[in-house]
Each structure stands twice: as C-alpha cells, then as structure tokens.
Design brief:
The protein has 4 helices and 7 strands; from the N terminus they run ααββαβββββα. By secondary structure, the protein is an alpha+beta fold. A hairpin with a 3-residue loop joins strand 3 (64-66) and strand 4 (70-75).
Length: 146
C-alpha cells in the first residue's frame, strides 16, 4: 500500500509540468531570493561530465544548476559578446534553459550569483580541448580625438 502511494505521488509529480515548461520546452533558472542579479542573467551549459572539473578549477563559482545532462553556470547578461563558446556549450540568454529540471547545486557565499565569464570561458575551452577564440571587433571601440 505504501509503495502504491509513493509511486502515485512520484507519477503525478512527474506528469505535472510548469506552465512555462509545457508551453516552450524551456525553464528559467530561479536564483535564490537573497541574490542580487543587477547585471541580468544568462546561463552557460556544459556537458555534465565536465562539471566537477570546472567547479574545482575556477577561482570563483557563482550559482550552478545541474541536471543529468548539463551543468549550468550563471553569468552576467551579454557574456556571449565577442566570445566564441565551444560547440559543446549551450549559451542560454535570460537563463532560459531546455527543460531538464535543473536544480541548484551550488550557491556562493557572496550576494551575487555570477561566475566570472572569462575564467569560465577559458576553463571550458581547456576541458573541451578547443583553442579559445574571440570574435574580432567590427568597429573601433574608442572615439579619436579631434
């Protein structure tokens, strides 16, 4: 009887998808309420097999979410500008990730949820065996003096 009750509870829990997930096949990663995300949030997803190695080698780790397939690092919005993230990486603007039910597995002691994107980019390139590359700027970033 207890097994039946537990299996029903598990089954109904699995069948219920959040409205956003049911509509789009994506879910927005929810940060802890105590965190300030004033720079906006994007997420960088890497294959789960690289998760522990990345976390142990990064100088600072922000919020990290994980599911069976991917680990997701929270980075400031726009962290994809001028960076050529490796093919194995999924970059999710707005931290809107494919619905795989990722759960928060690491929360930093700091008040911000961010992992610095440049060290993350360099480490991701290293563990995936891809040489880091940056997109060349198309226009000068400084205004010349008259």
């Amino acid at each position: 009887m207890l097994r039946n009750a537990l299996s029903r509870l598990r089954g109904t829990h699995r069948d219920r998808a959040a409205p956003e997930e049911a509509r789009t096949g994506h879910v927005r990663l929810a940060l802890p309420a105590s965190m300030s995300a004033s720079l906006g949030c994007d997420a960088v997803g890497v294959p789960a097999r690289h998760g522990f190695r990345l976390m142990s080698h990064l100088p600072r780790t922000g919020c990290v979410f994980a599911d069976a397939d991917r680990w997701w690092w929270i980075v400031p919005a726009g962290s994809d500008l001028d960076l050529d993230w490796p093919e194995q990486v999924t970059y999710a603007r707005g931290a809107d990730v494919p619905a795989g039910r990722p759960r928060l597995i690491h929360s930093p002691d700091a008040l911000t949820p961010y992992t610095p994107p440049i060290p993350l980019f360099l480490m991701v390139c290293q563990v995936t065996g891809v040489a880091p590359s940056w997109t060349a700027a198309t226009a000068p970033t400084a205004v010349s003096a008259p």
